[in-house]
Amino acid sequence: MDDIRGDRPVRTADWGWFLAWLLVGACGGIGLAALLTVGAAFLVLAAVAAVLLLRRGPRRAAVGAVSGLALPLFYLAYLNRGGPGEVCRAVAGGQTCTEEYTPVPFLVAGALLLAAGFVIHVRTGRRARTGPVPRT
């Protein structure tokens, strides 16, 4: 039905802006998670990209940054996939053990952020195409 109305290119462009903001959010999330090491560089990169996107693209696509915050959380869940507790792995010449957290909170928080960003983007996209809903 979208092809009949001819708004297919607009919808595709909206998702492109959303994905750009998703990357900004991921960069910002990595910057916050790694603040004591390389985080400052990621935060500066995210800030510069956000300024550029705010100048060029639709502001409603900025909700993609919310979904982008999910990517570092998914990575933390992956890193802690053996937890909770002490996890030992074989390495050359012996073994190494690390303390890992449970991955479930990182996974749930990431899934909620990812879903929230997508749902908000879809709903605001529909509202922008159909116009505001009249109040009765």
From TrEMBL:
Protein name as it appears in the record: Integral membrane protein
Transmembrane intervals: 20-53, 60-78, 104-122
Keyword set, alphabetical order: Membrane, Transmembrane, Transmembrane helix
Source domain of life: Bacteria
Native organism: Streptomyces pseudovenezuelae
